[in-house]
Amino acid sequence: MNEHLIRKLTEKQAHRLVGFILGIKVFEASNHSCGDEITLQGEQAGGKIEKIVYKGSACSICLASAEFLCQEIEGKLLSAIDTEKEKKKLLATFSMQETDKRASCALLPYRALEQLKKELLDI
């Protein structure tokens, strides 16, 4: 696992939390086996993710993953975001396999992303 990258991304999380917007729909995901919870909020204009923020009560891997996700998709067209491709990019960056014990922690924000996409794209 890429511990240095996870630590660096986790340190950035405080900056994103400041941007959490009251009154905008939230998309939540939780991992009942470990208690991690993550919430995403996204604003779009013209189909593009203008701003995406998160907050969570989760382990450092989950929070680093949420930060990575936000950095990767902000500014992209929502319809062009391939969740499976983004998951693979995250796992490769974190030097993890989908079968790793902590992969469910790392992939939790992507479950919230799938909800966000369904809702905002009316899939």
**How far apart are the first and last residues' alpha carbons, in Å?**
34 Å
Query: In total, how many beta strands?
Result: 3
Give the overall average pLDDT: 83
CATH class: Alpha Beta
**What fraction of residues sit in β-strands?**
15-25%
Q: What structural class results from the helix and strand content? A: alpha+beta
In the CATH classification, which architecture applies? Alpha-Beta Complex
Main β-sheet, spatial strand arrangement? 1-2-3
What helical percentage do the residues reach?
40-55%
Q: What is the molecular shape?
A: globular
Order of helices and strands: HEEEHHH
The CATH topology comes to Sufe protein. Chain: A
Total of helices: 4
* Rg: 13 Å
| Number of structural units classed as domains | 1
How is the biggest beta sheet arranged? Answer: 3 strands, antiparallel
Low-confidence stretches: none
InterPro entries: NIF_FeS_clus_asmbl_NifU_N
GO molecular function, one term: iron-sulfur cluster binding
Domain NIF system FeS cluster assembly NifU N-terminal: 26-112
Pfam families: NifU_N
